[in-house]
Amino acid sequence: MMEISFLAALAVFAATMTGTPGPNNMMLTASGANFGYKRTIPHLIGISLGVATLIAFVAAGLGVIFKMYPWIQETMKVVASGYLVYLAWRIVKAGAPDASQREGRRPMTMLEGAMFQFINPKAWAMAVSAVGTFTLSGGDYWWSAAVIVMTFIAVGFPLTSLWAGFGVWVGKVLSTESSWKAFNRTMGALTASCLVFIWL
């Protein structure tokens, strides 16, 4: 019974963290609308792999480095802010899907989606919180860390897929160049607004 309650609590936590708005889901919505679900799959896989790797690194003690060397965390905040603004600008400048084959118009790759998690403030928050809350002591530590990683993959991928799917639906609703521009500007602004997660 204790194990069932543990897994249930972990699954709810993972669903809350991966299914709510944040940089990943804003970008996935924009990608789904602009490129379709199929072309967004590498981005989705990259997010899952990146989050899983980040959790594993935090469990291995990466979080301790930030406590020892605070300047590393501050540097990452600056890098994350700059990259988030760049991604938001890419979304803002995107045109309608019929222009998606133009130079410079492509969805994020799997590697980009994975690497972004290491400067994604929400990903860091959920990795640190998950490891701090759900890892067990003693000989069960690594087992529980592995369960956390697998739960985030199992729960997170379907939920982030919903955001990409929502984007696909929005893309079908939008019918004019002006509506596409308005949508992309809105998604770009929402992506940029995630800077709040970094500096609060």
Automatic annotation (TrEMBL):
It is found in: Cell membrane. It is a multi-pass membrane protein. One of its GO terms (molecular function) is amino acid transmembrane transporter activity. The keyword Transcription regulation does not apply. Pfam families: LysE. GO terms for cellular component: plasma membrane. This is Lysine transporter LysE. It comes from Enterovibrio coralii.
